[in-house]
Design brief:
Layout: H1 4-9, E1 15-21, H2 28-44, E2 49-54, H3 56-61, E3 70-75, H4 87-95, E4 99-104, H5 105-112, E5 120-122, E6 139-141, E7 145-148, E8 151-154, H6 159-172, H7 174-184, H8 199-204, H9 209-220, H10 228-235, H11 239-250, H12 254-272, H13 277-283, H14 289-300, H15 304-312
Length: 315
Amino acid sequence: MRPDDIALLAQERPLRVLLVHAGEADALTWSGVYQPLRMAAKLLGPERLHVDVRSPDKFAADAPRHHWHLVLLVADEAQAALRPPQLRAIVDRCRAAPFWGGVGAGVLWLADSGALNGARTALPWSLYADVDTVADHAIFTPHLFEVDGHRLTCCGGAASIDFALTLVESLFGAGVQAQIKEALCVDRVRGPQERQRVALQARFGTLQPKLTEAVTLMEANIEEPLSTDDIAQLVGISRRQLERLFKQYLDSLPSRYYLELRLKRARQLLRDTSHSIVQVGLMCGFSSGSHFSTAFGQLFGNTPREERQRKLAGQ
C-alpha cells in the first residue's frame, strides 16, 4: 500500500496521527491498530511521528486548533450498535483532516453517515447486514483494508495489525516495519488485496452458493489453474450461467477474475518470499515468463522484476 497520496504523509514532520478510540480497551481491533503505531512512534521519536488518542466525546469537543494529518475512528465490530451520540460531529471532525477513515465498526458508522460514498471500502463482513441504505454508494469490497484517495478503511480484528504494519511500511520503510514485526512476533503481513476469509460467503453464500464455490475453487487452484468450463462443471452449472454470476456480482468474467487472483498472489510472493521470479510465475500458474510479465504489468503498472527490486530497496 503505497499510493502517491499516502506517500505525501511521509513528508510531514512530525506526522500527527489521531486514533479516536470508540471501542473496548482490550479489543483486538484497537490493540492491532494502536500497538504498531505506538511502537513506530517510540522508534522514530516525536520529531517524526506523534500518535495521539481521543475518546469520541473528547474528540467531538476538541477545539479546531488541533491539527492531525491522519484520523482513524476505531471500534471493534462487536461495538457496532453502540454508536457515539456525537457521531455527526465526529464524522465532520474526521473529514477535516487531510487523510481519515475507520477501522472495524468505525467503518460502518462512517458509511452510514454517507462519508464513504464512492469510495472502495473494507467493511467487516459480519456488518454487511447492518448498513443503512444511505451507504449504498460506498463500494464495499471483501478485502482486508482499502486506501481510496484520502479515505482509509480496514475490516478490523486481526486485519488491524496487517493494516497498521502496512501503513508503517508505506510511511517509514520496511526497516521500521521489520523491527515492529519482530517485537510483535509477526511472521507475515497480509496485503490489502487479500480477502476476509468469509466475506464471499457472507455476501453470496445464501443466495449465490455456486459463486462462492467457484471462487473457492479458484483460490485452491492457483498453481494449476482450472478452465472456466472445468469450474462450471465442478459447481454444477453451465459456463454461461457462471459468467452471468461473475458479471452480476463481481463485475468481471471468470477468466479475468481468476487471472487477477493469480497475479495478486504472485505480487504477494514477490514481496514476502525469496522465490525467484521464474518460481513465482510457475507457482501462480504461468508457464511462460513473458506472459507472466506482460499480465503483471497490465494489472499493476510495473514488471515482476521491478516489484522485486522495490522490495529489495525497502519501499
